[in-house]
User: Which sequence fits this backbone?
C-alpha cells in the first residue's frame, strides 16, 4: 500500500518546537520507514518532528516512533526509526587547566573524561605581557604529539582570548592523558587558564 493522507493526525503543535503526529496504517515497517514514504506531506513535516506509527494493523501489528531527519520542505522525506537508532547523548566537555606563571616552564596533566577529540583550545591570562622578553607558548599534547599551541605575545593584554583554530588530527580515549605545558620563555609573570573543549566521538 501507499501513504494515506487522512490517517496522519497532528496531536501536538507549538511555535518553534517539533510537532508530534500519529499515523495508522496496514503497511509494514520497512515500507513506512523507507525514504520517500511521506513525500506527499513534505509541506507539513519539519525536521525533528516525531511520527508515532501503529502499523501492519491487518497482520502482525507493531508500534514505533519515527523522527523526520530530512530538511524541512525537502523533496524527499526521510526518517529514522527511533526503536533501532543508535542515540548518543554525551555533550561536549570543557576542562580548565591552571598555569601558575606563563613565563615559567611548567607541565600540567589532565585526563579526558570521554572518548572524542579536542575541538577547541582557548587561553587567557590575568596579567599584561612584560612588553619585552619574547613570546610565551603553551603547547597541548596528546600521545606525545602536539595538537595545539597558544602563543602569548610579549605585548599581550590581560583578559584577551588566545586560541588555536588549527588543531591537529588526533583521537582521545576516555581516561587518556592530555599534557598542557609552557615553554618557559618570555617574561610573562601572570597566571593563565587554558580551556580544552572535547567533543565526544
Assistant:
Amino acid at each position: 500500500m501507499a501513504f494515506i493522507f487522512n490517517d496522519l493526525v497532528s496531536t501536538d503543535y507549538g511555535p518553534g518546537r517539533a510537532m508530534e503526529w500519529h499515523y495508522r496504517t496496514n503497511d509494514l515497517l520497512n515500507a513506512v520507514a523507507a525514504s520517500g514514504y511521506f513525500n506527499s506531506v513534505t509541506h507539513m513535516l519539519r525536521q525533528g518532528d516525531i511520527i508515532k506509527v501503529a502499523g501492519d494493523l491487518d497482520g502482525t501489528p507493531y508500534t514505533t516512533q519515527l523522527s523526520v531527519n530530512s530538511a524541512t520542505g525537502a523533496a524527499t522525506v526521510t526518517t529514522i526509526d527511533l526503536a533501532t537508532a543508535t542515540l548518543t547523548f554525551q555533550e561536549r566537555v570543557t576542562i580548565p587547566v591552571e598555569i601558575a606563571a606563563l613565563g615559567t616552564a611548567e607541565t600540567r596533566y589532565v585526563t579526558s573524561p570521554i572518548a572524542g577529540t579536542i575541538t577547541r583550545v582557548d587561553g587567557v591570562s590575568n596579567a599584561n605581557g612584560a612588553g619585552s622578553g619574547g613570546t610565551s607558548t603553551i603547547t597541548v599534547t596528546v600521545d606525545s604529539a602536539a595538537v595545539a599551541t597558544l602563543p602569548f605575545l610579549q605585548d599581550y593584554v590581560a583578559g584577551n582570548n588566545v586560541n588555536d583554530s588549527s588543531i591537529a588530527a588526533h583521537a582521545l580515549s576516555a581516561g587518556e592523558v592530555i599534557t598542557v605545558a609552557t615553554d618557559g620563555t618570555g617574561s610573562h609573570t601572570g597566571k593563565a587558564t587554558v580551556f580544552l573543549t572535547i567533543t565526544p566521538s
About this structure: The two ends are 40 Å apart (CA to CA). The chain has a mean pLDDT of 90. The helical segments are 29-32.
